[in-house]
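Backbone-to-sequence.
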């Protein structure tokens, strides 16, 4: 169900307000480059700095701009189960195709608490749900056995975005999950390794600015064309690396600003890139002919 290339969309700002025109242009750029789907208001979309109304509005904007031409997976996770349920139900109402649910952050629940959290959300919606394990930001991971329990207990939990950086964990997940349950890489730089271990694609940051090349890389890997996939990975690796030279999404927004696609603005507590890191990123972007 969730295979291919999905873009973790940035949320463009201008004067600290959502730049709707730039957002719509970005989505059109994605669709023109054959993206499988888009993911508004995830980590890259600066969801922690959007209020409830803005959060739902961005999802609705994405649905309307996509016009059914690609999937829309709405970021609706929270460290409050009640809030996650509310956001997921609102995303369903405005027409999202699925929801992405990050592991609860800061409050660090047990694996049993995680199971009950996601099970409660699944029971409150008909949307297909994608779990999101990213221990570097959340302080916990969704355990392999917990993912297995959720897949067995909740028919609408159908995939996981895996951002733990471990190929071994992908192997462990693939070993206990049904073939119908999809694993997506959450990190561009390790997508090929994850796909070799059984992942089916990526939720990508880099595809905000190079969607066509990321799509070609993932498609080549899926089709068993290792030579083409590796060539594209090696070409894009410096970009994959340098887009995380400072906290995401400041670097990708900076690059999109250089490309003339939007203002590079982020909301506090994020801020603009430093001079040295900005210079390094610009050299990489220029070397790839993006600007």
């Amino acid at each position: 169900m969730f295979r291919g290339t999905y873009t973790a969309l940035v949320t463009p700002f201008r004067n600290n307000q959502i730049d709707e025109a730039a957002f719509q242009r970005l989505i059109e750029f994605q669709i023109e480059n054959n993206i499988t789907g888009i993911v508004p208001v995830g980590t890259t979309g600066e969801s922690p700095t959007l209020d409830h109304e803005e959060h739902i509005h961005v999802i609705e904007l994405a649905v309307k701009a996509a016009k059914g031409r690609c999937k829309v997976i709405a970021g609706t996770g929270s460290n409050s189960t009640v809030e996650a349920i509310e956001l997921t139900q609102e995303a369903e109402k405005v027409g999202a195709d699925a929801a992405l649910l990050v592991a609860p952050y800061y409050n660090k629940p047990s694996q049993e608490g995680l199971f009950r959290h996601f099970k409660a959300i699944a029971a409150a919606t008909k949307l297909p749900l994608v779990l999101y394990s990213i221990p570097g930001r959340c302080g916990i991971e969704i355990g392999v056995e917990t993912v297995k329990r959720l897949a067995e207990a909740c028919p609408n939990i159908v995939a996981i975005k895996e951002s733990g950086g471990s190929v071994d964990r992908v192997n462990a997940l693939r070993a206990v999950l049904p073939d119908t349950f999809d694993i997506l890489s959450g990190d561009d730089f390790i997508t090929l390794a994850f796909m070799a271990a059984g992942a089916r694609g990526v939720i990508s940051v880099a595809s905000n600015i190079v969607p066509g090349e990321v799509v070609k890389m993932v498609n080549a890997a899926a089709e068993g064309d290792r030579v083409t996939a590796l060539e594209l990975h090696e070409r894009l690796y410096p970009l994959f690396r340098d887009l995380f030279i400072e906290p995401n999404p400041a670097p990708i927004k900076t690059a999109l600003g250089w490309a003339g696609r939007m203002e590079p603005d982020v909301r506090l507590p994020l801020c603009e890139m430093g001079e040295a890191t900005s210079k390094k990123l610009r050299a990489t972007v220029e070397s790839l002919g993006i600007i």
